[in-house]
Amino acid sequence: MKVVLIDDEKAMHLIMKRMLAKLSEVEVVGVFKETAAAFAYLVNHDVDLVFVDISMPRETGLEFAARLRASGKPIKLVFV
After folding, report:
1. pTM for the complete prediction?
2. Three-state SS annotation for the chain
């Protein structure tokens, strides 16, 4: 399973990567501090699951989710 992490706090990147590394079927393929870069990546890559922070500057996780759904990409989302 290919996973992307989106969180504006670098500490969360480290925590999530450490937790997900324990699952052999999970591959973290991208880590982003802001939604714009993550969205650009997701448009061009196949990803199964995105962990996204709800509260972020510029665009919230909920706004990002709405934009991702509008793009038609069938990616599962987990809000953190």
Report:
1. 0.93
2. CEEEEECCCHHHHHHHHHHHCCCCCCEEEEEECCHHHHHHHHHHCCCCEEEECCCCCCCCHHHHHHHHHHHCCCCEEEEC
Query: What is the pLDDT tens value at each position of the chain, 80 positions in all?
Result: 999 999 999 999 999 999 999 999 999 999 999 999 999 999 999 999 999 999 998 999 999 999 999 999 899 999 99
Q: What is the dihedral of CA 23, 39, 12, 47, to 10 degrees?
A: 0
**Cα separation values, 50 from 3, 66, 69, 75, Å:** 6, 13, 12, 7
* 3 within 8 A of 26, measured Cβ to Cβ: yes
